[in-house]
Inverse folding.
């Protein structure tokens, strides 16, 4: 069996919720490609938005998610001087033996873990994590921002007109070892957040070093574990909402209107300025501030080019605008004329932000959440979008999608089958452009139901990852069609043959 090159490894993330919005209960572990399926108003968007919020608070779900120079604990401190590094201040009373052990581990290029700290430092960190106020306020504010709420109490699921206790649990692990976890419990009377970190939690990755910086004023030397981490710490999140097509066509009008309302006269004329969710706001900011010249990852550029070629049959580009707002245009292949997105098909407006984000924003290691990537697309184009999702996974992007498309699910199933064949060295398909196969363990499909726990859908070679009710619906439609055909044949008294119905 061939050893395939795996995409950039993300930590394992498991999120459990109870009585969260319309969701009764769900335990979902995020995969390189996570797919949410189910009827409307069952919580798919709620869960996706929650992932977006938690990603921001906990540093992109890294193995040491809350230990960042910008995180709520503030546990990381700058190295003395003007060095472009940050580090962990170790106990200044560290012994010579402990210093030698840490130095040996650094030279062996092993991660710096919680257990490598002194007992005093470990206890200090655990105490910080257990304090509710450290995470409670940032979590509340981010959830309120992303869901556009005055209070997170509005997220509690109602049952028989009674408020339940809402809970959210986030657990991050790597290589089958738990790194850390955080729990949020919300009732009408109290909001509690607590957490814990395991001894094996990696605080700094490979490449860290231990240094001694002499202190001034005659104090003991300070011992630091440090890492030059700008690339290591950077994990961004992006959300393409269901309303992206309308926003792409009207963002200049929306932005202009909001700017006018911020003047004194505008505030007098419109005293109540409507608010948008953080998800919509940040999407609009990314579009308005988009720069076509920014440096892109070559692999991402290839994926964007393939999407334009295979689906759009044209290019999306930024047209200079004297007004300061970006003006995105679509140019079909074999023409020299540009079209405004409002003049192009709804498919172009729908996919334009995906092309732009892949080409100029998303990098390996990032998380991309897309609501209904199949919207406004012909069935053939929906299957091509499945290939784009797989290519992003191959490039190391974590992808989360919500969908109602049977065509998209069928093609994801086919791409998994291709991955199984490729792993066995039996895939006959020749790859044109970026590879688009998937492995079964890279895909997690979850079926949302009303008033029932979210259900995991397991891949099979025969059924793929489709829920059983899709097949039932197809069978019901066929039976209805066959029955009506036979009734028409009898009514018209012709010799049309009867159609069997199951």
């Amino acid at each position: 069996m061939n050893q395939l090159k795996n995409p950039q490894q993300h930590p394992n993330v498991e999120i459990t919720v109870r009585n969260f919005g319309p969701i009764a209960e769900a335990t979902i572990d995020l995969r390189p490609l996570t797919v949410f399926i189910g009827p409307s108003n069952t919580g798919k968007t709620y869960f996706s938005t929650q992932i977006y919020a938690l990603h921001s608070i906990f540093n992109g779900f890294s193995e040491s998610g809350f230990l960042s120079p910008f995180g709520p604990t503030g546990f990381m401190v700058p190295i003395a001087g003007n060095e472009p590094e940050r580090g962990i201040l170790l106990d200044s009373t560290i012994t010579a033996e402990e210093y030698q052990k840490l130095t040996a581990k650094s030279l062996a290029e092993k991660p710096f873990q919680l257990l490598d700290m002194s007992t005093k430092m470990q206890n200090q960190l655990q105490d910080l994590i257990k304090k509710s106020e450290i995470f409670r306020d940032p979590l509340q504010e981010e959830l309120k921002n992303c869901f556009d709420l005055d209070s997170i109490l509005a997220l509690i699921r109602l049952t028989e007109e009674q408020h339940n206790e809402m809970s959210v649990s986030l657990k991050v692990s790597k290589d089958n070892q738990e790194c850390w976890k955080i729990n949020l419990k919300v009732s009408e009377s109290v909001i509690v957040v607590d957490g814990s970190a395991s001894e094996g939690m990696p605080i700094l990755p490979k490449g860290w070093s231990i240094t001694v910086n002499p202190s001034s004023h005659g104090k003991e030397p300070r011992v630091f574990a440090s890492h030059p981490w700008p690339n290591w710490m950077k994990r961004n999140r992006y959300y393409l909402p269901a309303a992206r097509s309308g926003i792409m066509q009207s963002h200049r009008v929306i932005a202009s209107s909001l700017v006018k309302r911020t003047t004194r006269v505008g505030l007098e004329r419109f005293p109540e300025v409507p608010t948008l969710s953080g998800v919509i706001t940040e999407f609009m900011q990314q579009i308005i501030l988009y720069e076509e010249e920014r440096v892109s990852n070559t692999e991402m550029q290839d994926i964007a080019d393939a999407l334009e070629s295979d689906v759009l049959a044209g290019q999306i580009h930024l047209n200079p605008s004297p007004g300061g707002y970006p003006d995105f245009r679509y140019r079909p292949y074999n023409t020299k004329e540009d079209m405004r997105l409002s003049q192009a098909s709804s498919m172009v407006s729908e996919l334009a932000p995906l092309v732009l984000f892949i080409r100029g924003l998303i990098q390996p290691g990032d998380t991309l959440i897309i609501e209904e990537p199949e919207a406004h697309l012909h069935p053939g184009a929906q299957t091509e979008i499945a290939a784009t999702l797989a290519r992003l996974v191959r490039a190391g992007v974590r992808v989360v999608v919500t969908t109602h498309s049977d065509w998209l699910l069928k093609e994801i199933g086919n791409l998994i089958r291709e991955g199984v064949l490729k792993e066995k060295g039996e895939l006959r398909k020749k790859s044109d452009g970026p590879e688009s196969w998937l492995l079964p363990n890279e895909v997690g499909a979850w079926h949302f139901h009303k008033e029932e726990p979210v259900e995991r859908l397991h891949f099979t070679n025969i059924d793929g990852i489709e829920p059983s009710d899709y097949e039932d619906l197809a069978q019901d439609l066929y039976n209805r069609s066959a029955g009506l055909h036979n009734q028409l044949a009898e009514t018209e008294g012709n010799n049309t043959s009867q159609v069997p119905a199951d």
About this structure: The two ends are 42 Å apart (CA to CA). DSSP finds 13 helices and 22 strands in the chain.
